[in-house]
Each structure stands twice: as C-alpha cells, then as structure tokens.
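Hi, here's the filled form for the chain we discussed.

Project: internal
Contact: R.S.
Residues: 55
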Amino acid sequence: PDECIDCEACVPECPVEAIYLADNVPEEWKDYIRINAEMAPKCPVITEKKQPLCG
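And the returned structure, exactly as it came back:
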C-alpha cells in the first residue's frame, strides 16, 4: 500500500532484517524511532523502485 497499514508484510521481506514492529524494536535501535520521526518528514517520498547502490 501507499501508506503503512501495520500488516507486517514488509517485515519478512527485508533482506537485512531492518524492519520491526514498534513493539519489537531491539533496545539498541530504539533511539532511531525518534530520529526517524524527526528526519522522515524532511526526506522525499520514494514512489518508484531505484537501482541498488554499488557495493
């Protein structure tokens, strides 16, 4: 969907296991919830698939 509906479909699809439900975020990553909330509105919305970065 265009917006998150908390269906959890993205969680197993992440190849680097970097997506968590809010209740399951490991303690060492919890500060990033606040950082993401502050930074995400400043970033453009990605609406098309892009080529992967080199490396």
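Let me know if anything looks off before we file it.
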